[in-house]
Amino acid sequence: MLNFDYEKEPLRDILFVDVKSFYATVECAVRGLDPLTTMLVVMSTADNTGKGLILASSPAAKERLGISNVTRANNLPNHPDLWQVPPRMNLYIQENVKFNQLLKEYVAEEDHLVYSIDESLIDVTDSMQLFFPDTGLSRQEKRWRFAKRIQKEAEEKLGLVLSVGIGDNPLLAKLALDNGAKHNPKFRAQWQYQDIPETVWKIPRMQDFWGIGSRMEKNFYRMGIDTIWQLAHAEPELLYQKFGVMGQQHYYHANGIDRTILSEASPVAKEKSYGNSQVLPRNYTDASEIELVVREMAEQVAARIRRHGCLTQCVSLFIGGAMGEKSGFSHQMKIPATDNTKKLMNYCLQLFRKYYTGQVVRHVGISYSRLIFTQSRQLDLFSSPEESAKEEHLDQIIDRIREKYGFTAIVHATSKVNGARSIKRAGLVGGHAGGGPGGLDGL
Description:
The protein is an alpha+beta fold and 443 residues long. Helices cover 36% and strands 19% of the residues. It contains 14 helices and 14 strands.
């Protein structure tokens, strides 16, 4: 068993920052409501279910109504003081940008990392002395005051309530956030190397530990590992034999070890694929209607890869059957590198017509992979260079029109017929209503 000398581990000053109930807090902020005392839920009414689904609940709504962010509308208790508002994804993205701009006022670009739409982390090691030069304060006190200062500024400028996990490395800061700050009256918690036996090892549930899901928890249970303490004191070689590098990583994490330095971290690799999927608003039984949706989605994803300057060499089609029906299928095919909308539509339709056997369809997904990030084009032996150039030019013109005036500025006539989905989904962001960037629409 390894013996860790924490004095030799990287000692950084990391703040892991989370906006409490982000969507709900933003909705309260723009209405001038207190996000901690107001009962408010952001309720999606997307037509793919016909029913509402709670995307976010304010802390007061969760506590007083006993609901979660996956509660259905028909399970939401009636209460006269409860606000129910539709999602406005554009507004949330806008507020996320403001939130991260505020954090960047305290650190250099390389010391800031966006973790999700409501969480970011910053390494204040190099800037803490600038904002808190008082030599009479301990390192721990300066961190604590730094977190408090950011919380105060976010509340005053943006109306956002922040939880902040403080740690000697990114892992400890994340664990402090999830297991301490979110449950602390001040919404701050600080976990350090010397406190690991009393903090990390005493996390009550294994799934409360970052990176451990239900499947891994069951795997650990089969090995007789029921707690983080047991994981931290397990035989590392056995974990490596059982789970490979991931097992070794869990062992180190259970001991509070994370040697990541934000400013030295490798840049995020480009995506290996681009795709889109949707649950249809009803059961589709007509093959021509399903093909219409496949065409629309093939076109939408084609525009995405062009926007990112890449060609695809593999198209994948997923068709999901309706509940109670026979299952769907998922297949892919290798193709010559292209970003041509017409060709990609035809490839996707080939897959559909080859494998579709008449099942009732409720879910469609398309993705393009094996991407090449290049501006070069390979000539097609089955079409003239002039024809290929003409189609490429047409795609570019359509892309520019939609970029400037919106997707619905130019659509195919088939997008108006029964079963089409592209126009109805044009205003969605992440599958939910985009809403306006500000104001009180939806009140």
